[in-house]
Predict the 3D structure of the following.
Amino acid sequence: MAAVARPLNILVRACAVALLGGLLSAGAEAGAAHAADSDKAKKSKTIETAAVFPGVGRLNQAVEVPKVLSDADRKLYRELFALEAAGNQAEADRLIGRLADPILTGDLLAARFLSSTYKTTYAELQNWLGRYADLADAPAIYKLALSKRPKGAIAPRKPLAALGGKDKVRSNAKEIACSGAANLTALDAARDALTDGHDKEALAKAEKAAASGQCMEAVWVSGLAAFRLKNDDLARKHFEALAEAPGVPAALVSASAFWASRVHLRAGRPQFVSHWLGAAADHPRTFYGLLAQRALGVPMGLDFEREPFTEADYEAVGDLPRVRHAVALIEAGQRARAETLLKQIGQHAAPPVRRAVVTLAESLGVVGLQAMIERTSGRRGAWRDESAAYPVPDWAPVNGRPIDRALVFALIKSESGFQVRAQNPTGAYGVMQLMPATARFAAKRAGVSKVNKAALSDPEVNIALGQSYIEYLAKTPEVGGDLFRLIAAYNAGPKAVERWQKARKKGADPLMFIESLPWRETRELIEQVVADYWIYKLRFGHDTPSLDAVAGNKWPTYEGKREKVAVKDGKD
């Protein structure tokens, strides 16, 4: 059954019907340019840099990103996007014909179609996807099109790339899943037994799963259970085997090596302690790698100097048609859309291109691209740079109150990868992944009145609420100012932490508390966030007493160092 026709205004008719006049011609030119770019990319793998970025300097010389839009178009695009956001489509239609460069026409249409003030049709959405399936809003337009598709209508074109940023991505940073149903069942039972303090049962079940050779996580659990049983020879065997096994993630290698050093320390074999601490320290950005470096008293080896964007970087991305589009979006004040587009380009690119896209993003003020790449492809040899991996955005909380930047940014890095429009299927929104109920609760404490979905997608609102919630959690009896329990409560809630505290074996040390928690996500999040928290503190030149405490096998107190963040002049 065909879609029911209805009158279309000028802007929509540009996409759905004839593309005549004003935005109509702009839409046609933009669509043609889009198609030409795609064809050109298919026919040739190299495009002269000067054609995309004229006037670049020498290969290793830092250069500025050339402008794409004229000053007039830059101002006009910003006005047009503001009009679309306000639902003033008539005024947008009146002004659209003044644009000299129609490069962002598809983005303007998407802003209109996704607005709550505009009722779009399936035909409009289908036509948009036919022209602009590679733009940042393509997944949202596609989802909307599916919801409006009439029975029997031709299916809409799918987005050309998986955009990411909607679902929270948790990397399997430390633990390796088993293969085989029997192994999984045995591992789950072993984990439950370890959590409940039944160490002999945990060891027996974990070793059963480990015996298959297809469940490396079971080797880890076996080592933990043997450690609690004070069977040092067996614990050492399991930890050292994992630390030396090929293909094991860096976080698990450093964890296993660190725990091997603990076994040797307890067994009175100091000659082996430094060896295994050194093996853990070889992975300096992991939780246990940082602990090992502090225990050894060696420099952290982190370099936060920003990599310059060079002419060589231009050459690496010069044949990517959407790079120019992303730069234009930045100039038009559409950072979120530009961020999505740049992440699309960099996510699956080869390391040289990845580096160029990251440094381009940094130069444009788009933060978090490297953090996202590490979450999705870091173990495939992603180019790494501490400055880009631990970004410092100039976000100032909307309520003007001081924040603990180190912890806030560490949480953001794990929760959303600095993606301002991140949305979890469970309903969490924004950079700090706040549930609506949590946001409303925190808003009262933070003095913030507006907490709808749009507000939560504003990082300056989100961090104000997130900081308020952190302060609340830190003072609850369940957390009691402890850093580990604070992160656990942020992830699972204070009541869950209370249950885990009650189940904890008397005298359990801080590290065993983490490793015996029942939820993998919480275990991983604590270690990821705390490691990033320490690294951010080092970046800001702060002391790290909590790192000293954990390295000395003591519980870490949350320091809560808050700072006033100034609003950057000329901020978009």
